[in-house]
Amino acid sequence: MRALPRAATPLLGFGRLLRRYGFAIAPEQVSGFMQAVTLLGPRSMADIREAALATLAPPPDRRDEFEAHFQNHFYGNTSAVVEGDADEETRIKDDGGASQEQIEVISQQEGGELSSGAEQLSTRDFQRDDDGLAAFRRKLASALPARRSFRTVRTHSRGKLDLRRSLREIVSADGDVPSPLLRRRQTVPRKLLILIDVSGSMKLHTADYLKLAHAAVQGADRAEIFTFGTRLTRITSALRIRDRDQALARAAAQVDDWDGGTRMGPTLLAFLSVPRFSAFSRGAAIVILSDALERGDHAELETAMRRLSARAFRLSLATPLAGDPRFRPATAALRAILPDLDDLVDGSSLAGLTDFILSLARPAPAAATIWKGVS
């Protein structure tokens, strides 16, 4: 891959700076920013500023903060007051350019029984064991829900007449009428999107969830994996490495918010705010692995789940809390999002989760219908 020109480094760094402070900046916007600067010359810093405003599109309510970051980054004006704290905003991390640095465990706290909104940054280490995911990986591609594609393939029966190619055959055969050529629309598996809660309250389960995610990426061509806690991180590319130890080590290096607090609503809204990420959810089977213990106001969570439900083919929440026979969706957050869920299932074991994911193509009653009758 050709290295970027030296002059492009500050432009790329400005996009990364905005992402670090919670601005929803897609990689395509950063690329567009650099292309706009190239087209403009630029003749002055005013041209760079106008290109940044046009392509990075800061929201009106954060325009002053955007200006302060621009002054700080390009002029070194550290006296500019930047409203808001990066730690208080949901940070989005894509895995397109992950480093290969060695994994170091810097936090080994036990517990995780309580969920909070406080951010705590740490890394994780994963050990290999025999968990029986090989069979799940082999079955997944054929078990996922399918949809009819607009692309067509040739077929010998039960298709529509391929008039263009049939006429071409007639011309090449000097007017003889051969057997008509038929085509039918392809049937392709739907996308599988898995969102994994890595907060402290899920600490006992995240290792298994990451192993499941690696098997899903290896078994399905269109699987996408994200982690969320106080930040949002895409780890799909790391999990495409065939060797599981190497893949999980790479993923662990990319995720910064292991075993910290929970901001489920804001992180899901951040996911939806990036067009490229939001496109992953359209028509997909979405599985959220979380206890859904949202602290404080759950309005953002409710909004995010409603928008995900409208985009998804099927929206499922797998919570380890449902492994307890006494579990009921009694919290305010769970009651609010229950109508938007197609499934609310037990996420406490790998065996149960793999069976559930392999059954996504089969119809089932909506979660609200099932849990309505449970007292």
TrEMBL record:
Organism: Rhizobium loti (Mesorhizobium loti)
PANTHER family: BLL5662 PROTEIN (PTHR39338:SF6), BLL5662 PROTEIN-RELATED (PTHR39338)
Protein name per Swiss-Prot or TrEMBL: VWA containing CoxE family protein
Pfam families linked to this entry: VWA_CoxE (PF05762)
Top-rank lineage group of the source organism: Bacteria
